[in-house]
Amino acid sequence: MKKILLFLLLIFTGVSFTNAQGIFDDTIHTATTFGSVNSPGAEGVQNVIDQNSSTKFLDFNAFDGIGFEVDLLGVSKTAIAMEFVTANDAPERDPTNYEIFGSNDGTNYTSVATGSIPCVATRFFSRTFSFANTNAYTFYRVNFTGTCGTSSINQIADVQLFESIGDSPVITCPSNITMNNTTGQCDTVINYNVTANDTEDGALTPTVTSGLASGASFPVGTTEVFMSVTDSDNNTSSCSFTVTVVDAENPMAGCPANIMQTAASFGDTTAVVNYTLTPTDNCVLINPLANFTPLTNINGKAYYLSNNSFTPQNAFNDAIAQGGFVGTIRNDADNTLITEAVNTVGGAGDLLIGYNDVDTEGSFVWQSGDTSTYNNWNPGEPNNAGNEDYTVSQSSGGWNDVTNVSTYRYLLEIDYTPTQTAGLASGSDFPIGTTTNTFTITDLAGNSVMCSFDVTVDANLSVEENAFSNSIKLSPNPTKDIITINSATNISIDSVTILDLNGRTLQTITNIGQLADGKTIDISNLVSGMYFMKLQDSESRVAVKRVVKN
């Protein structure tokens, strides 16, 4: 068996695992709390040194961390590594930093080591963090701070300190990898190489602890890969790296061709025009939205995570103001997709969803009115403790009922449509002439393209009416105040009616008479914009002209 300590052979992050004999012995040592600790009876501080992953130390007062002290009963030990094991519950409760102190009188403590703990989703995951220390102590204090999410709770399964950890194998991970997506796909194949060697065992084969194996298709976004290797002495070393797949592909606009349409009836100044955009993307189409982080698009429903926190009722009101609802989760696949999307963008801890029993106690419904009966309650939930009428989804995907007291970030659900930046919506009354419609289509990665097309509406005229209309000229057009009407055929006009774009009459002038010398119309009283001028002669022939007022 190897006896030499070579902790410098650990990976650069200090992550490793070992089965060596630890300093803390639950059979003779007692762990006491340090700092402000509020633990349930079955999840007390002694569990942290019992080397049993199925028990844990939990502290509801995470604001000052979760800490403990151990008296080694007068025996001096020189700690040079700490093993940390994640507990069974929600990952957002895991601490993110540690500090180890030593003392020989139980009162005056010296800082021995500090470091950070990378957040992982894997439960009961053991890592060992090595550090330089040559001083022996008879008391040790370990304090953990921070949380991997917005939780107010800290938890740990086990902590152990070691004087020696043997000659650990050396494992080498590649540097972080970044690649673009494969064209037309929301992923790409990533190949990587991880090597491992041991002083006695020689070359070893690393295994994937979490993440994806080399040669797998990695999704767009960042995937953390943890690799580990164990030697014949049961010393385990680990390393990690990230694989980031960038969605570098623009959406397809699906823009319709230019549309030409004739007004339905004679004298109409508008026509109803319908059109359809068919945008597509290799990943997810979703519009940017102020104060919200885009998550995903499911069957035409865009889902966002609010950047701000609200009480449940205020969140329900805010969602309506945004034009949507607090999100509906319709099945297990959607629950998994949304949970992963929220965790990928940094997590929300407890995420408010639209399931509630505000109206009838015990009868949960979705704010959207959706008839979905799917739920994913945690064991023992909902329990309505303290009149809990609302629902949150945890980072694990499980649901709990909550009151209207605390604040949460919420899941927003809105019907997806491309963002229109100019023109009129499909089904609108389009005026005679040409209207340019433009849309911006954006994907989850922020790639965007523009769609632009023209809708041209012609007046409904007979051959005679068309000749009559073509003989009439307006000048100048655009104009600031006066417009002159002329006709090469010296026709006589009975009346001129000025209408707005919605066909409403603004002004009517009668007894215009012959146009040989031109007739002037004063429109200085109109605000700047586009108008229609309807001219009618004694034979009831009508011409409609567009006028632009500067």
From TrEMBL:
The record's annotation in PROSITE patterns points to: C_TYPE_LECTIN_2 (PS50041), HYR (PS50825)
Q: Which Gene3D superfamilies match?
A: Galactose-binding domain-like (2.60.120.260), Immunoglobulins (2.60.40.10), Mannose-Binding Protein A, subunit A (3.10.100.10)
Which domain of life, per UniProt?
Bacteria
Q: Which NCBIfam families match?
A: Por_Secre_tail
Q: Which SUPFAM superfamilies match?
A: C-type lectin-like, Galactose-binding domain-like
- Mind telling me what this protein is named? HYR domain-containing protein
What organism is recorded for this protein? Answer: Kordia aestuariivivens
Write down the Pfam families for this protein, in alphabetical order: HYR, Lectin_C, Por_Secre_tail
HYR domain ranges (all copies): 163-247
Outline the extent of the C-type lectin domain: 298-413
Q: Does the keyword rRNA processing apply?
A: no
**The entry's keywords:** Repeat, Signal
Tell me the first and last residues of the signal peptide.
Answer: 1-20
